[in-house]
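Lab intake sheet, docking and co-folding queue.

SAMPLE TYPE: protein with bound small molecule
LIGAND NAME: pyridoxal-5'-phosphate
LIGAND FORMAT: SMILES
REQUESTED OUTPUT: full 3D complex as structure tokens
PRIORITY: normal
SUBMITTED BY: R.K., bench team

The fields below were copied directly from the construct record.
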Amino acid sequence: MLEAIFPKELLKQEMSGERFVQIPEEIRDVYRLYRPTPMYRARGLEKALKTPAKIYYKYEGVSPPGSHKPNTAVAQAYYNMKEGVEKLTTETGAGQWGSSLAFGGAFFDIDVEVYMVRISYEQKPYRRVMMQLYGADVYPSPSDRTDVGKKLFAEDPECTGSLGIAISEAVEACLKDDRAKYSLGSVLNHVLMHQTVIGQEAKEQLAMVEEYPDKIIGCVGGGSSFAGLFEPFYYDKVMGKAPKEVDFTAVESTACPSMSAGKYMYDHGDTGRIIPLVLMHTLGHDFVPDPIHAGGLRYHGMAPTLSLMANEGAINVSAHNQTDTFEAAALFTRTEGIVPAPEPSHAIKEVVDEAIRCKETGEEKTLLFLLCGHGHFDMKAYDDYLAGKLQPYEMPKEKIDASLNRLKAMYPEINK
Ligand SMILES: Cc1ncc(COP(=O)(O)O)c(C=O)c1O
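RESULT FIELD (auto-filled):
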């Protein structure tokens, strides 16, 4: 059934039990524009925090669209092209994913149609322009182009949209067009696997300076960037090859705490319930998070593999609010010179807290985090931060409980 929306090769990868999948030369050719990405030691941040911890970060913002997302976008565009697909539909939250798929589509001559979460469409007009420059068509979601969008708009004309809604629209648009397949920028196994190029490079780069992390930290929306960084290290750990004990922390937004406050249940990946049920941490598919600036973290679900690991205690989870994360981002900008995207600023906040803990205990830990994108298109968010206008959204427990109760009532047999 999934062949209606995905090409065969990506489905093969989705279900594959292979340890490694070779990266085709045509994909490497595009990767060469920005890979290998740099690994930095954050000496300026270390000094400002007066911490004995060593802080390293892998920077994916050097890709032309500005984040880790092209690692899978280029691969997905390539495999679709190989199977004769002429058009890809997709959703985008922050605009990073849409820009990346538009970039990938441009290299492999595929039309790209993007449903952009309405709040981001309004907050980040220049992301839209970038997608259009790469040749994509961009629509604010909910839109009047799909049945799902029309219905939601009729119910709430003020709807700011969500990734769950935009996914439903993109899948519906794909199913209505014979030339098209659908492309997802996170959550799925093949997407996470494409991102592991990050962790494989990171391991080699740290080995060059004879380092191995004690702690790996990354932000999570659907989980692809964090998994891309930590899974090659996790592999060392489970194979007994890690030279020391290493732990992993996923950081989410308090406005959309899928793993820290959601439940491990069967749910749909999209609001319109077109996508089959998956077992994951979720806040419920009709949950519309507050309009935080980290649009990429406004997703109700989480990658099933990460959810399983969190459930089994293989990874830790924490959450931060946007006022604290922007403060950490501003400190990072002043000490390291790079303006981070709002999403990885959640990881930076966690790193700052951990480095301060190290100062208190005197531990000389080696921390590694993923700076998965720059914030050059997020100046409206930074402007709001500087003007003191940011809200530290924290999703009330009653709203989450109500959403999860609706989900339980919808599928009482499997969600007890
Ligand atoms: C810069 C950036 N970081 C993180 C994310 C979250 O996605 P994921 O958890 O799959 O990396 C997004 C998603 O749009 C993003 O644009």
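REVIEWER NOTE: The chain has a mean pLDDT of 96.
SIGN-OFF: pending second check by T.M.
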